[in-house]
Amino acid sequence: MKKKKISKASKAFYITLSYLSPRLNTKLLFLKKFGRFPDLKDPKTLNEKILKLKLETYGRDPLVRQCADKYCVREYIDNCGLEHCLNKLIAVYDTPEEIEWDKLPEQFAMKWNFGCGYNIICQSKKELDIPATVEKLRKWGKEPFWAYFSELQYRKIEKKIIVEEYIGGSDGSLPEDYKFYCFHGKAYCVMVCAGREEGWPKFYFFDRDFKLMRINRDSKNAPEGFALPRPAGLEEAFQTADRLSEGFPFVRVDLYLTEKGVRFGEMTFTPAAALDNKRLPETDLLFGSMM
């Protein structure tokens, strides 16, 4: 998942405002995105309901914070009986300077645990610029990720660098990720990205039978009869998302379907910081009604 972009001119303002008033910061960000203030007293849409949870619940909920932490979530997955979906953990570090590069395998995935987009995918350690990578990790580690959009579930996470097994294909390709939209322990649909390698990514929604759901712009504009090949392991992936989302009014569960089976990606409680204006208004209301 890519980090949400924010201009340099706005960054300091929103960070400062997050520390002073996460609620005001959230309202101003929503106004900038949608041209109106969010209704946080009587929210109707998915965006608004997530914002209310973010401000009033997520910062105080230890389970949400655990599941938002890309390291601590592993214990939650293990407790759910889904340890077989966990990618193999190779190492954990507190700082970039502690990384023992000579002990790492030729291929691996490395990431900070406290936000989105802080990832290093190494397909060949021989070709990896280690000093540049250390500097990048150091820069990322200083960022107050939670404060950009007042995502309070990230605020108190103890920062760690985790190294996991590389799960790319034998041909060097990266696995496709499947994003499951889950409500009260049931994965309602899955979002799939197509055309990324060709440079024209489009996002499509499918139901549990992998039939196209025309509930976002790309899906709505798809030609009549549009379909993608049903991926192997899809039913297991839906069941995995069901189990992981139990007890949460909403969470997006990201999974990989690899040559070795279903692998866990992350659990996201505030997709697009709950500022998603690419979702159709009627879909935002539909999803909101399901919470």
TrEMBL record:
<protein>
    <recommendedName>
        <fullName>Glycosyl transferase</fullName>
    </recommendedName>
</protein>
<dbReference type="Pfam" id="PF14305">
    <property type="entry name" value="ATPgrasp_TupA"/>
</dbReference>
<dbReference type="InterPro" id="IPR029465">
    <property type="entry name" value="ATPgrasp_TupA"/>
</dbReference>
